[in-house]
Design a protein that fits this description.
By secondary structure, this protein is of the alpha+beta class. It folds into 2 domains: 4-135 and 313-337, 3-Layer(aba) Sandwich (Aminopeptidase); 138-310, Gcn5-related N-acetyltransferase (GNAT) (Aminopeptidase, 3-Layer(aba) Sandwich), CATH 3.40.630.30. It is built from 11 helices and 15 strands. The strands form 2 sheets. Strands 1, 2, 3, 4, 5, 6, 7 and 15 form an 8-stranded mixed β-sheet that branches. The longest helix is centred in the N-terminal third of the chain and has 17 residues, at 84-100. The termini are far apart.
Length: 339
């Protein structure tokens, strides 16, 4: 069977296909591509066709980094029924494009579950595990289709108690789609990054994410307020059947007020009102190691109930000898971060 791979320029065609893939991922949405362009990156959208029928897509982003430029495919390629011949066709197109652009490496972060079959597939294509992940690969997911009563009962007892306590304490939740609230969130986010000693996304990145997804009404802010102070916040991206807790932030001004717990509960309720059926809390620690930097955050997320989805680790296809210098730099960075 001969497939044709060509660039896709029709948003509706792209979105119809991507929204039909389960689970939904906003990292391959049309908006995510538009966001990358706002950030100054070049993108390519490939589609693999069987006759006139679109059967798979791959978003390629030329990432400009000081250690070298590379082509990145987030949560892709996406194809019907995980058919490997379709994935190969798209990987070949991405590889050809990356070579033409003189890039160091083709890197993909597959949406497929981490198992022997999927890991072997990428190895057989000539790829190797990347030294670092680009996006979270161990996700915590909650099915929010059950009633609110069942969801509440499915939480850890401590989580339920802290939600009730936040309500008694007078914590209020405010939801917003106003761009002016980007300032409020960024201030909280910067405080969080400084306190937890991690390099956060830039104001330009947060603004681009909001602008790209608000165009289709697929993003909102959520804030927990206590005695006039914003004590916790989230930037929630929605796509298809799913809401994503992609960006979160908090302050330590009121450390004994559990506003973050009530915040998540109200986010879940809002997603249900929107008709979503799934809430992706995003990344958790890949193990139960209590010393892992994400251990506390993981325990917090898991308290709401749900299950783990572990995706294939990011894969690299080296295209130039200079890739190995980049590999060494990233490996050193990974070891310093300890994850």
């Amino acid at each position: 069977m001969t497939f044709i791979v060509k660039e896709v320029s029709d948003k509706s065609e792209w979105e119809k296909f991507v929204l039909g893939i389960v689970p939904n991922t906003f990292l391959h949405s049309w908006s995510w591509g538009e966001m990358q362009k706002m950030l100054g990156e070049k993108i390519i959208r490939f589609g693999v066709y069987d006759g006139e029928k679109l059967r798979g897509v791959a978003l390629g982003i030329i990432v400009s980094a000081r250690r070298g430029h590379f082509l990145f495919c987030p949560h892709g390629p996406l194809v019907e029924n995980n058919e490997q011949k379709l994935i190969v066709a798209l990987l070949e197109a991405l590889k050809e494009y990356a070579v033409k652009k003189g890039l160091l490496v083709l890197r993909v972060s597959p949406l497929g579950l981490a198992n022997e079959e999927n890991n072997s597939f990428y190895k057989n294509f000539g790829m190797r595990p990347a030294p670092m992940h680009v996006h979270a690969e161990t996700m915590w997911v909650l099915d929010i289709k059950p009633t609110e009563e069942k969801l509440f009962k499915g939480m850890r007892k401590t989580t339920r108690n802290l939600i009730r306590r936040a309500e008694r304490d007078g914590v209020k939740i405010r939801l917003s789609r106003e761009k002016k609230d980007l300032d409020t969130f960024e201030k909280l986010y910067t405080e969080t990054a400084d306190r937890e000693n991690f390099v956060g996304f830039s104001r330009k990145f947060l603004n681009a994410e909001f602008e790209a997804f608000i165009a289709d009404n697929n993003v909102f802010f959520a804030f927990a307020e206590y005695q006039g102070d914003i004590i916790s916040g989230a930037l929630i991206t929605t796509y298809g059947n799913t809401g994503f807790y992609h960006q979160g932030a908090s302050t330590r001004k009121w450390p004994k007020v559990p506003g973050a717990y009530l915040l998540q509960w109200e986010i879940i309720r809002e997603l249900k009102r929107q008709g979503r059926g799934r809430y992706n809390f995003w990344g958790i620690a890949p193990s139960e190691d209590k010393k892992h930097p994400w251990a506390g955050l993981s325990l917090f997320k898991q308290g709401f109930g749900g299950y783990c989805e572990n995706y294939v680790h990011a894969q690299d296809l080296p295209l130039k000898p200079a890739y190995w210098v980049t590999w060494l730099i990233e490996e050193i960075r990974r070891r310093k971060r300890k994850y």
